[in-house]
Amino acid sequence: MSELEILDLSVSFATGGGDLQALNKVTFKVPEHRIVGIVGESGCGKSTLIDAILGLLADNGRIDGGEILFEGRDLTKLGAKELREIRGPRISTVFQDPMGALNPVFRVGRQMTNIQYRSGLSKREKARRAAEMLRRVRMPDPEAALSRYPHEFSGGMKQRIAIAMAMMMEPALLIADEPTTALDATLEAATIDLLLELQNQIGCSMLYVSHHMGVIAELCDEVVVMYAGEVVERGTTRQVFLKPRHPYTQRLIECDPARLAGRAEKLPTIPGDIPDLRARPSGCVFAARCSLREEVCGEPPPENVREGHMARCHRAAEN
Amino acid sequence: MLNYAVKRLGLSVVIVSVAMLLLFSMIYLIPGDPAAVALGPRATEAMREALRIKMGLDKPVWIQFWNFFASAWQGDLGREVLSDRPVAQVVLEQLPYTLALIASGIIWSVAIGIPLGCWAAVRRSSFADRLVGVLSVAVIAVPSFVIAIYALLIFAVTLRWLPAIGAGEPGDPGSQIVHLILPSLAVGLGWVGYIARMVRASMLESLEASHIRTARAFGLPDRQITYQYALKIAILPTVTLLGVGIGQMLSSAVFAEIVFARPGVGKLVYDAILTRNYPLVTGAVLVTTVLFVLINLLADLIVGALDPRVRSGF
User: Minimal CA–CA distance to B82: which of B123, B38, B124?
Assistant: First the structure.
């Protein structure tokens, strides 16, 4: 049974230079109690995907087709009010930028009690729950932390507060949008441990978005590789990292600095840029940057699935 | 907060002192003999000399400044030329009228400007937003004395809804409030535009912030997000703008007081300049300066109270 199932989701934005198709027939599942990682470069549509799930697309954004199935309902069909009922208690989010994720002019305690407005608890009870949650994310002196303002905390501590806020809702699905990108390596490891621990305790599913291959490999059960708004490869973490089938995934893994043995003169990169999404190539989206390109790549590549490991590539059958 | 307030108060004292130095230099640099101006053309040289000694003009300039500075801080602004009454007393008699005028001008501008700005920001790029934009610029562009004259003609002369001149019966708050409506509208209407523009711009910025996205992601109600989470941040530049804008309101008050024949500091300065009553001009300008500095102090304290980052950063 899947907590979240995304089927053929397409999203576009109306821009001055024409419609920009940010997501093109994205399909994947987040099984119950599992962690699914979404990986890809900046601009591959990771953030648009999150906004679409949460129903927070910008005013010029529009869902062109597809379904977002969550707890038996299609989120694309729900009204603003019903979506608001789901955001928070059912799906909570930890965002990328801990510095800006908290409101600077309200005390942490106030922000943590405000989001419990549906609970019907007394003010004291809400504050007690907030302090309890801060203790679980190992915030020193949680009661005192409630009466402090966000700027009085370090980036790592702010991210803990953000995680505490998300986990306090005891959601069915936690979306983590590059929660460790702004943190240094030590904090990153600690934050990931914390997320895993809380996910285990609460028993929620998690959608973990990152461009950091190492973190995805360590944390996730399944991986979805996105490129230019399309899912190019999808499989278990073991499948994708040990036997990547799509040339883009292969390049991504080669480019992870953590994998380099010894000193390299130059870090490897993938030459070229993401294609202009206002004029999507008719064939494979990665063809222009692919070293294995051949004539057939001008045609839309089929989904090649083997043992649940999907790759959208004409040559996927070879590997 | 106390620490911040004390530091900010100290800064205000320094600002007022510098303003005094500038004001004194201005009087000193104006050509002509104040004693001769005060006594008129038919006075004898002996009379002028006596007045100069009385006014301390025979002493070195730095002693003159020190005398002016020290007595001003003690509330002694000298005596005015025509009636020989203490300047401080004359100015303070008129001050409440101007304060009431400016305060009600601010009430107009805040009570209309802030909701209008929020309303426009939430409906960005809609027809309503553009209409608010055009109207705001229009009321900013029209000088306050033009608004004063038209308000007078329409509401007082033609429709006879509101009184045309004066400040109302002393001791009768109802009549005083009725007499305040038109002049304060003249002073405040332009500021409705300024504040609506300012609030709209800072609301748009503040609604884009990532913590607003967080609040939305937790399903907080839109009203709470707009009027609590976003507005409390968006209001900060507006409070600062209002503090600085008091200077412009003080000059609008001069026109409003003349057009509506209201007592007040503006009217006082205007009359004092016409009668060349220099001590009164100086005193009134100094009191206005102190008022301006105090209001800015108040604005900064409000910002400090609203924004914890300002308190700890000072």
Answer: B38
Residue of A nearest to B306 (CA): A105
A and B: number of Cβ contacts within 8 A: 73
Q: Domain containing B279: what range?
A: 96-313
Q: Assess if residue B137 is contained within a domain.
A: yes
Tens digit of each residue's pLDDT (9 = 90 or more) over B47-66: 888 888 877 778 888 888 88
Residues above pLDDT 70, as percent of chain A: 97
pLDDT level of residue B211 (50, 70, 90 thresholds): very high
Question: Mind listing the pLDDT tens digit for each residue in A85-113?
Answer: 999 999 999 988 878 889 999 999 999 99
Q: Which of A85, A87, A102 sits opposite B217 (nearest CB)?
A: A87
Q: Which residues of A touch B216 (CB under 8 A)?
A: 54, 56, 87
In a domain, B111, yes or no: yes
Indicate which CATH number applies to the domain containing B150.
1.10.3720.10
In a domain, B14, yes or no: no
If you average pLDDT over residues B101-127, what whole number do you get?
A: 91
Q: Domains of chain A by range and CATH?
A: 2-90+171-318 (3.40.50.300)
Other C-beta atoms closer than 10 Å to the C-beta of A201 total 11
pLDDT at A260: 62
pLDDT tens-digit readout, B132-154: 999 998 888 888 888 888 888 88
**B contacts of A118 (beta carbons < 8 Å):** 219
**Cβ–Cβ gap A106/B210 under 8 Å:** no
Residue B86 placed within a domain:
no
Is the CB of residue A89 less than 8 Å from the CB of residue A171?
yes
